[in-house]
Amino acid sequence: MLEQVLAILMFSLRTVPQRLGSVLTAVFGITGVVMVMVGVLSIGEGYKKTMKASGDPAVAMVLRSGADTEMMSGLSRQDTRIIKDHPAIKQVDGTPAAAAELFVIINLPKRGTGTDANVPLRGIQPQSYAVREKFEMLEGRFFEPGRNELIVGRGAVGQFEVELGKEIQVGANRWKIVGVFAEGGGVAESEMWTDAGVLQSAYRRGDTFQSMYIKLEDAARFTAFKSELIRDPRLRVKVMRQTDYYAEQSRTITTLVTALGAIIGTLMAAGAVFSAVNTMVTAVAARGREIATLRAIGFHRVPIVLSILVESTLLALAGGLIGGFIAYLLFDGFRTATMNFQSFSQVTFAFEVDAGLLAMGVFYSTVIGLIGGLLPAVQAVRSPVADALRSE
Amino acid sequence: MSAVTPEPRPKSLMLHLDGVDKSFKRGGQSIVVLEELSLKVPTGEFLALMGPSGSGKSTLLNLIGGLDRPSHGSVVVDGQSIDSLKSSELTRWRARNIGFVFQFYNLMPVLNALNNVALPLMLTNLSHAERRKRAEIALGIVGLGHRLKQYPRTLSGGEQQRVGIARALITDPKILLCDEPTGDLDRASARDVLDLLQVLNRDLGKTIVMVTHDPQAAECATRILHLDKGRLIRESGSGANP
Ligand SMILES: Nc1ncnc2c1ncn2[C@@H]1O[C@H](COP(=O)(O)OP(=O)(O)OP(=O)(O)O)[C@@H](O)[C@H]1O
Ligand SMILES: [Mg+2]
């Protein structure tokens, strides 16, 4: 059986040079589908990855109860003092790794286009560095507390018109960029940081903050930490794991992108199936007499059908692999910035073409190939042998 | 390919068609191609079928070879009623019992002579070496032992048809069905092919049914039947094998 399938397959594959045009049309059709699909989905994948990198399961975020984002939240200094005293918080150099932070949005021109984009400006405390273990200074120096100085994430440097040594004007204030930092590829790399106290006075926030970032002694203590803070009668707060917070933030965009990928993919796939069917119909028609002869000699239908299916699947697979490869070359690591709908600010991230996406692309092309081969395969063996022999 | 001398079995029937009708549906209409056709072919006979174009010769050959089924009537080949066989059984039966020779040879262009001839053996359990050996013998019988590696496009029409005959022979079928085997050949090549068929009939005892338009070709047969409008109208003897 296998031998028969291979033999018939070989009869056909040897004729590929003679029908190269139609074969290439089908192959590249599928290349296009897989390339675009993988490309679109790599956006969602990359975004998800950035959001995932942003989270540390041992880091808890505290917002005012009822606030979904830092933007909408507010905490008094009194609140932050109570929270800081909690015994589950990790002690670093004798002080709790808990930072009260501010979060505002400023307008900066995007690199290249020059259009305005919302960039997050975060006011931090010295403990913020202890909470964010992946933080590292890449260039320049830390800002000095009390001065209008900024450090910017490396993602922001790539996407917006900010660079080391530059001064930017925001409202009545001028800020000097004194350093560039990394934070493990997470969302913070799209932000600019300054001293919380300076930001408080620049934005007339009095002595209030918006969020607290807390490094717990142990990620397992989160549940207890959360319920104790919530039950504390002096506080009205909401406690989340940082990982959950960012997973929630990436949901909208990944859903959007996945839906977009599915729609584009389906439309293009319909076209690709059509072209695969066309190619295989041509191939089968060109070999009508050969196939009829094989059947007259005593070859059964099944190996004939299988060989046609295998051929169309092989062609589709070739198209899929090329498409996946091109998508990888074009899109993987391609950096961009987009709106984070929850925080109304820009997040920079890189498209991510990973093994899972490539496997999906290959699987998808296989399905296209199978569907494309089915009709011609059935056609090839459905007609009576006598008729097939007669038609030249 | 038992090269033994054929035992004289003049009375055993290789083929028995009884009351065969065949009609085709075309555009809602039914076209009668064969009507109440009965035919007996003894084992070892070389039968030539003649008749005008469209008279149903190929259709009759297809019914005998199990490529198509009669609308009515029965077809018995070597004692086996093939009407009762399921489609897949019929396919298997063809592989074992029938050798087809086509007007346009129907060789696989991507296979050389040897592999074309060995093709039907792919449906058997024979080893690769055994298949090759048999294909070489078959090509030897048709006089192409020196052309094993050549591809169809490098062979003359007559040579291609002889490869086709070797392919039909390879499974040692009881019956060879040839539809205008010389229809596309010049005189000399046709002569070679007809001589070969006569040898296969006389020396290997193959029963042959051959459709032809050529009276000279028909002369090679032991019996000639004329078909017209789906009926056997005339029988004429032949000088070849009295
Ligand atoms: N599948 C089919 N559907 C409809 N009509 C058919 C079909 N097969 C054969 N016929 C018709 O049956 C008639 C006999 O055909 P057949 O091929 O048997 O003739 P033939 O005697 O072999 O002719 P030729 O000498 O031209 O080969 C023709 O009129 C043909 O059109
Ligand atoms: Mg005919």
TrEMBL record, chain A:
Pfam families: FtsX, MacB_PCD
Chain ranges of the ABC3 transporter permease C-terminal domain: 263-384
Domain MacB-like periplasmic core: 25-229
Transmembrane portions of the chain: 20-43, 256-277, 304-331, 351-375
UniProt keywords, alphabetically: Cell membrane, Membrane, Transmembrane, Transmembrane helix
Membrane topology type: Multi-pass membrane protein
Name of the protein in its database record: ABC transporter permease
Organism this protein belongs to: Acanthopleuribacter pedis
Lineage: Bacteria, Pseudomonadati, Acidobacteriota, Holophagae, Acanthopleuribacterales
Automatic annotation (TrEMBL), chain B:
ABC transporter domain sequence ranges: 15-242
Pfam families assigned to the protein according to its UniProt record, in alphabetical order: ABC_tran
GO MF annotation list: ATP binding; ATP hydrolysis activity; transmembrane transporter activity
Keyword ATP-binding: yes
GO cellular component, one term: plasma membrane
Similarity-based family: Belongs to the ABC transporter superfamily. Macrolide exporter (TC 3.A.1.122) family.
Name the UniProt record assigns to this protein: ABC transporter ATP-binding protein
Organism annotation: Acanthopleuribacter pedis
Lineage: Bacteria, Pseudomonadati, Acidobacteriota, Holophagae, Acanthopleuribacterales
